[in-house]
Write a structure and sequence with these properties.
Distance between the termini: 25 Å
Largest sheet: 2 strands, antiparallel
Number of strands: 2
Strand content: under 5%
Order of helices and strands: HHHEEHH
Structural class: mainly alpha
């Protein structure tokens, strides 16, 4: 079961990473830094926050706390207009840190205790914590993308008006075990 767990979470994280990237592709450089108001976050800010969290949480997980003293969380939400290249580099740096750590985990690591702000978590608990946190923010990115693209938005899931056809196709297939991220 544990090997299935690691495989499953890697697929789920990759799925949410791809949703963010499919959103970025639909936006202009200016839209990546757009804010609804001064209290809201731009996509660039959300990317900074996700990357900062990932690098802090997943670097040296067994020897250091997941909230590194080098992390400046407040700076992750600073207003600015970074280039698309900077945004994508920041995005990829965070995800690389996460996936490198997940790739190095063994089944025996899953019950080990790691710390986030001095609170002990098993590795499974820490992964689950971030599997809730990262999709939460990717959902914000997608929502902002949909608002910014308006009628030009290309759906990342089942487009409106297509549910009946989608379900008919699925139910026409034999029952089988498949991870939802493996389906196209």
């Amino acid at each position: 079961m544990e090997n299935d767990y690691i495989t499953s979470v890697k697929k789920q994280f990759a799925y949410y990473k791809s949703l963010g990237e499919k959103t970025f592709e639909q936006l202009t450089d200016e839209q990546l830094s757009w804010q609804y108001n001064p209290e809201s976050n731009s996509i660039a800010m959300i990317v900074n926050h996700l990357s900062g969290n990932m690098v802090s949480r997943w670097t040296d997980i067994f020897t250091t706390d997941g909230e590194k003293p080098t992390r400046n969380r407040e700076a992750e939400f600073a207003t600015g207009t970074p280039t698309r290249g900077v945004i994508l580099d920041t995005w990829n740096r965070g995800w690389k840190c996460l996936f490198d750590t997940l790739d190095a985990l063994t089944v025996n690591d899953l019950d080990r205790i790691i710390y986030i702000r001095n609170q002990g978590h098993t590795v499974i608990e820490a992964i689950n914590r971030q599997l809730a946190h990262y999709p939460y923010h990717v959902g914000q990115i997608v929502f902002l993308g949909k608002m910014l693209c308006n009628e030009n938005w290309r759906s990342l899931s089942i487009p409106r008006g297509q549910s009946e056809n989608y379900n008919a196709d699925k139910f026409a297939q034999e029952k089988r075990k498949v991870h939802f991220t493996d389906e196209k």
